[in-house]
Amino acid sequence: MAGDDNTFWELKLWIEHRIRDNGGEGSYVEFMGLFDHALGFYSFKDSSTARAKCRNIWKWYEARGWTYHILKKSSKTEEEILMTRQERARTNAIARAEKARKAVINAITGLYANEYKKKSGAWHIKNISEAIGYDPRVVSKYIKQYETNLS
Q1: Is residue 85 pLDDT above 70, yes or no?
Q2: In whole angstroms, what is the distance from residue 36 CA to residue 32 CA?
Q3: In angstroms, how far apart are the furthest CA atoms of the chain?
């Protein structure tokens, strides 16, 4: 599971401390210092595993101009973070609903729309839901919305 690699996080914090101790953001940290620290304090299957882990961490900081991120205090309050998460959840829910609506409308107005019609003229909701991969209740909801907007 992501976040369970304590060695990775300790090495990441170690390099951030070195950046801060060397004069702050933009201060270069030697790869061999990180690698020696990793070999001195942790056991790895082999040295190539340690080298790969250190190289990935080191390159991440090099690409970002040696700025440290974890040690910075967030300027957002817990309430602001919660609001941001709620807003993101709302935005994602709206996007999922719009994607489902478009899929249903495309199915009933597309080239193969006649295949989803019953002899009585009603829609065959189960076939549509299987074809587009959405629950029949979702398909029914958006078909009803579409038909009421046409009227």
Answers
A1: yes
A2: 6
A3: 78
- pLDDT confidence bin for 1, thresholds 50/70/90: very low
Cβ count within 10 A of residue 50 = 21
- CB atoms near residue 140 (< 10 Å): 15
> Contacts for 54-61 with beta carbons within 8 Å, 24 or more apart?
54/11, 55/31, 57/8, 57/11, 57/12, 57/15, 58/15, 58/29, 58/31, 58/34, 61/15, 61/19, 61/29
Give CA–CA dist 79/68, Å, rounded: 25
CA 75 to CA 59: how far, in whole Å?
A: 27
Q: Side chain identity at 138, as an amino acid letter?
A: V
C-alpha 107 chain-centroid distance: 29
Mean pLDDT, range 37-41, rounded to an integer: 85
DSSP classification of residue 117: B
